[in-house]
Every structure is written in structure tokens, then in C-alpha cells.
Design goal:
- The protein is built from twelve helices and 42 strands.
- The protein is of the alpha/beta class.
- Among the domains are: 96 residues, Phosphorylase Kinase, domain 1 (2-Layer Sandwich); 145 residues, Orthogonal Bundle (Transferase(Phosphotransferase), domain 1).
- The strands form seven sheets. Strands 4-6-8-10-12-14-16-18-20-22-24-26-28-30-32 form a 15-stranded parallel β-sheet.
- A hairpin with a 5-residue loop joins strand 37 and strand 38.
- Helix 10 runs antiparallel to helix 12.
- The radius of gyration is 28 Å and the shape is globular.
Length: 678
Amino acid sequence: MITLLHSPFPAFAAAFTFFNGTETDRLALLAIKARLVGSLSPHIGNLTFLSGLNLELNHFHNVIPQEIGHLFRLKYLNLSNNSFSGEIPSNLSACSSLIWLRLGFNKLIGKIPFHPGSLQKLERVQLHYNNLSGLLPSSLGNLSSVKSVSGIDFGGLTSLWWLVLASNSLGTGEADDLNFFNSLSRCRNLQILDLSDNQFGGVLPNSISNFSKQLVSLRVGRNQLSGSIPSGIENNFVNLTELTMEKNNFSGSIPAIIGNLWMLRRLDLSENEFSGLIPSSLANITQLYALYLQNNRLTGTIPLSFGNLSYLQELDLSQNHHNGTIPKQLMSQSSLTISLNLAHNQLTGSLPSEVGALKNLGNLDLSKNKLSGELPSSLGSCVSLEHLHLEVAGNQKLCGGVPELEFPACIAIIWQLRKMKAKPSTDASPTKEFHLKVSYETLLQATGGFSSANLIGTGSFGSVYKGILGPNDTAVAVKVLYLHQEGALKSFVAECEAPRNIRHRNLVKILTACSSLDFQGNDFKALIYEHMPNGSLESWLHPISEAGDVDGDLRILSLLQRLNIAIDVASALDYLHHHCQDPIIHCDLKPSNILLDNDLIAHVGDFGLARFLPEATTRCNLNQSSSVGLKGTVGYAAPEYGMGSTITMYGDVYSFGILLLKMFTGKKPTDDMFKNGM
């Protein structure tokens, strides 16, 4: 009898116990995602016919048994998101059929022991978020001279297209790292390369310009690299969409030829020692949506051509030596929806009246410059601002009356402008900016130990609790994810990603997120939202008394209130579908996902199933069936989703129609009256 795992729960252990024999020996694929706790048994090595092993998102600990190297037929190994410790088995190189190797988000230590030269079929390697160090395989440790060894020769992996080694302590010194990059440059099919947050040092060699023309993402940020940006990358990286080199020691000027990387969407050169002017050619990268150049030694004026970046959502030029005035072309860039940071420079002149075009901007920081003149009245049109920084320090000549502003959500703005109008005070302002930095312990205390008394509601992927946070005892809603539930992690990512670039008065605002460990060392993820005191629309349409009985007299919405709520929801959908940078499909519109504030204004929430339209379209072009639609709620999901149709805006509109039906008839879509086509 073979036990695959040692577990304190006998039921789990029994569930994955197999007998020696034909059926067991020929087990081809084993995938377990059940929040299991225990260690992986050495007997796993007896399953020699195993071609796939997926134990992702469990709580396995202790070492990965060496016997895993006996699985010579193994093609797919995924042990990520566990708590495995110790070193990577040295005989893993015996798994010569391995195509995918995923060991990320564990506690693995030591060097990378296997020699990928023996794993010629590897396509995807993910070892990120561990404590791995060095570069050389342990088998080379007995060599008298390691200078002749180019580290792990990834260049022999002709099929490799995905390599993620981020957040370790890899890197052995300038000479060996140089050899490593030279070796890596021979990977002709590489598309994803993430070496960020390690200890790679020395100069980035020009040989990296020989990387595959298929490369779409290159991340080398948070290392110890120096020198200039390698020449030649602008000629070969024709498909690059992401280039991040932040927090290194790069120097020299930003080459103008980098403007040839016209497919870039994200460029991060921040926190280096770049000097000289910002090349105006960056405006040629018309798809760019995020540009980070802060904390460098850049000089000169802000290029007027930045006004041509019609997709730009976030721009940070702070803590440089820029001078001149703020270009009105930049202030006219309505695509800026996340942040515009020009702080800590030497900018002069007044704030252009064109700033009123930034209606959807969330953060504007112009502090510590040399601005002057009155604030334009058009600033009041920036109705989505959450943070406005116009500190007096540096902007001594910024004067005149404060225009009549209408900022419904911003407490930081009032605080900062007050500092411009009144004398400094030592009293704490009740409107002082509130920053949420939360841990598991903080949320545990805020919710009374996730007490059932504070439970607001439950859903497919988590429970929502009321909590009190911050120095002002701010009420928040804390959604704790069920990480054992399949799809919960994807839901967490979607809820973090979708609201990041959107702001609207009828959308629930996400304040922050928490991703850490609980007191038992288990993964913990939670989302913190603004609290809606009047609960969900569902609780108003079908109120329940404390005894648990339906009581229609508890809360009643008038016809006008229902109409206003319907208009609020329609406004939110119109914004998501037609006024975001990339249209967003909500995919789960229903009364329980519509929350009401003090004034019964409706806010659409729960973006756990949301999809960006280009992503959904691309995915559906590859596969005409769509499982995402099936994850909607029965009765509200469009019928065509159940038949495998693609995700479209029309699906949300259908859900909205069912929502109206329920609001004005009081009947659920699963009511017995809706039969025979009615």
C-alpha cells in the first residue's frame, strides 16, 4: 500500500491511498487542491507512470522527497503555493520528460541543484518566491575552478519560453552573472523572463539583445545591475510589452531609440541613476499605459509629446530635476485615470486650466515644486480625485483663493488645501489622509476575531465581515477568501485587478488588500472595501427578520427609490462597458452584488468573475467555449453562457434585465411562475 501524503487528518490520507497494481501503476495524472496539510511521502516515487502531478494551493510542508526523481515519465510538476522547505531534489534532472516545473511560493533554500541541460524538453520554469541562492548547480561544486563554468546553461533549453526566478537571492557575482546572461541569451523561444528581486550584479551584457524576438516580458528590477541600457534591444525586442528595470544602479541617458519598442505597455526605469533629458521619442510608444521614471537624475522639461500618449493611465516623474512649466498637453490627457506624480522637481508657472480634462484621475501630486498663481476653477471638474497633494513646501507662490471644488470621495484634498490657506497647526485634522496598511492580525482585531456577530454575508469565494480600522475608527467591509475553493485565488486577482483602473460613484471602492499568513502559517488573503451601511439590494428586496423569517414589513423600497437604484446600476454598467480604457464585463450582476450607502445610492461590487473585454475576446477566439460564463449565478447568467457562448456586454445587459424584473415584480428568476417560456 502506498500513502501519498502524511496528514493529521486520516480521512484525507485514506482518500489518497493507492494499492500496488496495474491500475495504480498506470495512474497518469494526479491533481489535489483540497487545502491539505502534511508532508509528501517518499512513496510518490512508486507511481512511475505518472505524467502530471499538481498539488498547488495546499499546505504541504517539509522537504520534497528525492524519490520524485524516479518519475521519469513526469511531464508536469506543480508544487507551487505550499510550504515545502529544504532544497530542490538534486536528482530532479532524471525527470528527462519534464515540460513544466512550477515550485513557486514555497520556502525552498539552497542552490538550483539540477542541470537543465539534461531537461531538454523544459518549456516553463517557475521557482519564484523562495529562498534560493547562487547560480551554480551543486554537482559543479567539486570543480577546482568555477570561472570556466557559465553557471546553469539555460541556453541549451531550446524549448524554454517561460522562466520566472523572481524574489530569491540568486546571483553569485559580476563575472558569473555575466556568463549566466550570455548563456540565457541563447534561448531562442523565450517569451517571459522574470529575474526581479534577486542579487544579480554587474553590467547587463549587450548579448541580451539576442533574446528571442518573441520576448514579451522582461523583468530585472530590484537587483544590483549597473551600466547603461544595453544597445540593440530596440531592434530585436519588437514584441516586448513589459520592461521593468527599477531599483538597480543603471546610469547614463535613456536612449532615444527605446521609442522603437512600440508594443510596450509598461516601462519602469525608476529608482536608478539615469540622467539627461527624457527622450521625446517615448511618445512613439502609443500603447504605453504605465511609465515610471521617478527617483533618477533626469533634467530638462517634460516633453510636450507626452500629450500624444492616448492610452497612458499612470505617469510618475517625481524626485528628479525637471524644470519649466507643466505642459498643458499633458494636463489634457484624459486617459490618465490612476496617477500623475510630478512631485519633488523644479517645475514653475501655474497649474494649466486644462487640468479639468482629468475627470477620472485618482491621484495628482504636484508638491515640492516652484509653482505659482491661482488654482484654476477647472480643477473642480476632477470629480474622481482621491488624493491631491499641493503642499506649500516648495510651492510658496501658489496662492489665491481655493476654487469651489466638488470632490465626493477625497479627504486628502481638503487636508492638503487647508495647509495652503491657513497657518500651520499642531492639532490633528479630522480629515487627515487615511492610509490603510493591514495585516492578518490587524484584520483579526478589527473584526472581533472574524466573529459571526460581524458577519455581513457569504459567497462562493469568501465571507464578508464588518470591521473597524484606522485611527478614526473607519467602518470597512472585509472579504476573507476561501483559498481552498477552486477559483478563489483567480477571483482575488480579478478583484484586485479590475477596480485598479476604474473609478465611478456607482462602483464599490476597494481600499486595500491583504496577502499574508495566519497564525498557523496558512495563506491568508482578504479584500477591504468601503462599508455600505444599508447592505445589499437583495436584503431590501427579500428582508429577513432576526428570527430568520421573511418579513416584508422590515424594509420597503418605494417605486422612486427602486427607479433610482436601477439608474445607478445602469450608470455603472455604462461606465464599465463604454468608458474604461479596456471594457470590463462584470459577469455576475445580481442584487446581492449591489450595495447601498446611507443615501440608498447603489454601488456595484464583487468583481471576482469580471473580465477585460480584450482578454475575453482573445480567449474565446482561441476556444469558442467559455467556462467563465458558467460560473455566473443561475437565473441571472445569460442562457447562451450555459451553451458555451463567448462573454459579451450583452450578457451583463441580460443580467440587468433580470435584475429589473426582480426589483419591480418582487419575484426571483427561479420562481415557479417563470415556466414554459414566461
